[in-house]
Amino acid sequence: MRSAITVDLVKSLAREDTPYEVHDPRLKGFLLRVQPSGVMTYYAQYGRGKRCKIGRADAVAPSVAFAKAKTVLAGAALGNDPAEAGKEAKAHTLRSFLEDVYEPWAKASIRTPKNTLGRLRANFPDLQKKKLGDINPWVVEKWRTGRLKAGAKATTVNRDLDDLRSSLAKAVEWKLISVHPLAGVKRSKADDNAIVRYLDDKEEERLRAALDAREERFRAERDRANAWRAERDYPAMPDLRRVEYADYLKPMVLLSLNTGIRRGELFSLEWRDIKFQEEMAGGRRVPPQLTVRGQSAKSRKVRHVPLNAEALTVLRSWRAQRPDSDVLVFPGRKGARLDNIRKAWLGVLADAKIKAFRWHDQRHHFASRLVMAGVSLNTVRELLGHASYTMTLRYAHLDPEHTAAAVEKLVRAG
User: Fold this and answer.
1) Which residues contact 372 (CB under 8 A, 6 or more apart)?
2) Which of 63, 217, 262, 286 makes a 20 to 30 Å CA pair with 280?
3) 198 φ, ψ to 5°?
4) Is 222 exposed, middle or buried (0-12, 13-18, 19+ CB in 10 A)?
5) C-beta of residue 41 within 8 angstroms of C-beta of residue 57
6) What value does the mean pLDDT take over residues 251-257?
7) Is residue 207 in some structural domain?
8) Running DSSP on this structure, what letter comes out for residue 98?
């Protein structure tokens, strides 16, 4: 029997004394087998005597089964054997795949393995026990619906889905599954032109004032501590009045506002990446700049960011008070890489009475100020290290003179 396999058709099919099959003419190889018991099962037939079970009709919608069959048949056309891959997939659940296979590779190959693996485990709890071969579009669509109903933003759901998609792409590459189970799953519709958060002039003034106030508190605390120690003939701790910065936070914030580098890039910044003096290279003048190395950049590409007067002064002062720091510009305890400054940052924002402003928004602030100052979007893209121009277009609306000049061209000379 040949007929398009739809919801209405499935409802209309009756059981018979012997099994029979319905072949869908829209996709060669996609069929529904009806047993005398009334059980109906979807299959993808990809060769003589070779077929792959998709699922039962009482659990899988016809449209989902059609999409899965299309993926299986496409893989078979490329030489993959779904049956063999299915046997291999039974060896791994998502949890065992992440722990035994994906995690070792991720630690050696991606920029933020800890965060990525953490999201995969925390955001897909119901998939952890599923076999890789049992993860399908219907399961993921059910997960997506639940997340969106629970209030998660579409952009957040897309980021999590991208993590899962990337990990399963490796499972395909390593022959653990024959075809990507999410090949037909699209990203949720999201507003790619969301409002860019940056500081207005008064907010920036309050932020700088809060940083200065925090510095003074630290210095006053050190003064009191040293007075107490002097009374007891204890050796004094370093005098914070003799250095430009009481600790790392103010120079990190000022450098971020003036360069737009990401937090992870800032944590990984080394003194060898800083050029304090203007140089000549290939007959061209190279201004003072910092270099974001490929291994710490999101795009994995090296980029160079010129240092303006404030950024250069900050780095020179910070360098002068930390002559013993020979590797990382902003080291953590015992010289290790910093990984969290959340508490200090939130404290300054609270003191400055600034709401809804993440550390990453300093990057938006940097870009927004440049655009509003008339810097071209392409130059902003280069400074930010965006892989595509699309990401930079979010700042286009901040150039009112540019848009005003564009519409003014519609006025005819009278």
Assistant:
1) 398, 399
2) 262
3) -140, 165
4) middle
5) yes
6) 97
7) no
8) I
Both 263 and 372 in a single domain?
A: yes
123 and 151 within one domain: yes
The last residue of one of the domains, among 24, 48, 79, is: 79
Mark whether 53 and 130 lie in a shared domain: no
Q: Mapping DSSP to helix (H, G, I), strand (E, B) and coil, where does residue 60 land? A: coil
Q: Are strands 279-281 and 284-286 parallel, antiparallel or unpaired?
A: antiparallel
Residues 96 and 16 in one domain: no
By the 8 A CB rule, do 361 and 262 touch?
A: no
Q: Does residue 199 lie in a domain region?
A: no
pTM over 0.85: no
* Residue 230 to residue 396: CA distance in whole angstroms: 58
Gap between the terminal Cα atoms of the chain: 73
Q: Is the pLDDT of residue 53 over 70?
A: yes
- Is 237 in the same domain as 153? no
Query: Are 68 and 98 part of one and the same domain?
Result: no
pLDDT, one tens digit per residue, over 134-170 is 888 888 889 999 999 998 888 889 889 999 999 999 9
The DSSP element (H or E) to which 306 belongs, if any, is strand 303-306
Indicate if 273 and 376 belong to the same structural domain.
yes
Answer for the pair 11, 62: CB distance below 8 angstroms, yes or no: no
Q: Are residues 128 and 148 in the same domain?
A: yes
Distance, C-alpha 13 to centroid of its chain: 47
Question: CATH number, domain at 326?
Answer: 1.10.443.10
Q: 93, 279, 240, 280: which is closest to 177 by C-alpha?
A: 93
Give residue-wise pLDDT tens across range 98-142. 998 899 898 888 877 888 999 999 999 999 999 888 888 888 889
Total domain count, the chain: 3
For residue 365, the enclosing domain spans: 215-405
Predicted confidence at residue 286, as pLDDT, reads 79
28: which 2 tokens?
A: 């060669």
Give the amino acid at 219: R
d(C-alpha 20, C-alpha 345), whole Å:
67
Q: Is residue 178 part of a domain?
A: no
